Automatic annotation (TrEMBL):
Domain CAF1B/HIR1 beta-propeller residues, every copy: 2-346
Entry protein name: CAF1B/HIR1 beta-propeller domain-containing protein
SMART domains: WD40
Subcellular localization: Nucleus
TM region positions: none
PROSITE patterns listed in its UniProt record: WD_REPEATS_2 (PS50082), WD_REPEATS_REGION (PS50294)
Source species, domain of life: Eukaryota
UniProt KW Lipid biosynthesis keyword: no
Entry's Gene Ontology cellular component terms: CAF-1 complex; nucleus
Pfam families according to UniProt: Beta-prop_CAF1B_HIR1 (PF24105)
WD repeat locations: 1-16, 47-80, 101-142, 143-174
Main localization, broad class: nucleus
């Protein structure tokens, strides 16, 4: 795992589940209290090159690179070195800078890698999103269709779309093709009438669904009053090029949703259980609001569980482990929370 924040640094962690017998140990002192936690957390390294708060960190799909970006308008690509630096007594890993990208003129809020790990896209409050090539070490495309802050970006795992979300109350989906090792973007399909406060949208791991936070749902259609609840919109892949409205919505939240994160593992469907989506498997995703996290799967519309009251400041982002057994979420209060699921608890 990687964390970052207002102290301008990035920290790398190892988080591993403990065996059940270690969790059930009787607590007699502070060491045993730490040993009784369901996860073993080990600090690995601290990365310092940013000169302002870091807003986003993302590992590449293959895990060989780490990208970071923030208020200093710089995107830094990091790589783990095979050998340790002897000068760092308290660190167990050494990371080096591969390249530093510049192009945005205001703070960067979000970043997403392409499935191949050769490209990435960034979102900035300079009202643009930029696509970068790691091999060319340059910006290869600038998206200028939004009229306000671009706060969220997501790259289709199937390699056909990128999506951007802005506080101009719109989401744009850009089809693209590859020709002669170049990415060629087409005109976007625009989806409007979203809530103004928007953050991080996300494609499902199979690319079949796109969920965007910051939706609004009128709970009482018979009422003339604006009785609106916060929700997230669900878009089907086959509708992204037609600009059609969402096929469904998730949640009636007291506060706006700010981020969606999918678990990359595909789970077996529950038998004798109706499915909300016609899929041969089951996928998990988490939806974060400003003060709560809701966990769903694609076989039902109601959340599997909800977590709230964990932080004193708004939640900022989410991250799953690859096997779906651990979910971590961060907060503006400077702390992270870890949710651990037992074996087979989620399927």
């Amino acid at each position: 795992y990687a964390t970052a924040g207002a102290d301008c640094s990035i920290r790398i962690w190892s988080i591993q589940k403990r065996p059940h017998n270690a969790v059930d140990v009787k607590i007699k002192d502070s060491k045993q209290l730490v040993d009784s936690l369901p996860v073993h957390i080990d600090f690995l390294s601290e990365l310092k090159r940013h000169s302002a708060p870091v807003n986003v960190v993302r590992f590449s799909p293959q895990g060989d690179y780490l990208a970071s970006a923030g208020d200093d308008t710089c995107i830094i690509i990091w790589k783990l070195l095979p050998e340790m630096n002897d000068h760092c007594e308290y660190e167990k890993e050494t990371w080096s800078v591969v390249h530093m990208f510049y192009g945005h003129n205001k703070e960067i809020y979000d970043l997403a890698w392409s499935p191949c790990g050769r490209y990435f896209i960034t979102a900035s409050i300079d009202n643009t999103a930029r696509v970068w090539s790691l091999s060319e070490k340059a910006c290869i495309h600038v998206i200028t269709d939004h009229t306000h802050y671009v706060q969220g970006v997501s790259w289709d795992p199937s390699g056909q779309f990128v999506a951007t979300q802005s506080s101009d109350r719109s989401m744009n989906v850009y089809p693209y093709t590859k020709k002669n090792n170049k990415i060629i973007f087409s005109s976007p399909k625009k989806f409007t009438k979203l809530e103004k406060s928007q953050e991080r949208l996300s494609f499902s791991p199979d690319g079949g669904l796109l969920i965007t936070p910051a939706g609004l749902n009128k709970t009482d259609m018979s009422s003339e009053e604006e009785d609106l609840q916060n929700c997230a919109y669900v878009y089907a892949r086959n509708m992204l090029q037609s600009g059609k409205q969402p096929i469904g919505l998730i949640g009636n939240y007291p506060k706006p949703s700010i981020a969606i994160r999918w678990c990359t593992t595909l789970f077996k469907k529950r038998s004798n259980f109706p499915s909300a989506f016609a899929l041969p498997y089951r996928m998990l995703y988490a939806s974060a609001t400003q003060d709560s996290v809701y966990i769903y799967d694609t076989q039902q519309t109601r959340p599997i569980c909800a977590i709230s009251g964990m932080h004193f400041a708004p939640i900022t982002d989410l991250a799953w482990s690859h096997d779906g057994s651990i979910l971590m979420f961060s907060s503006a209060d400077g702390y992270c929370s870890t949710i651990v699921f037992s074996d087979q608890e989620l399927g």
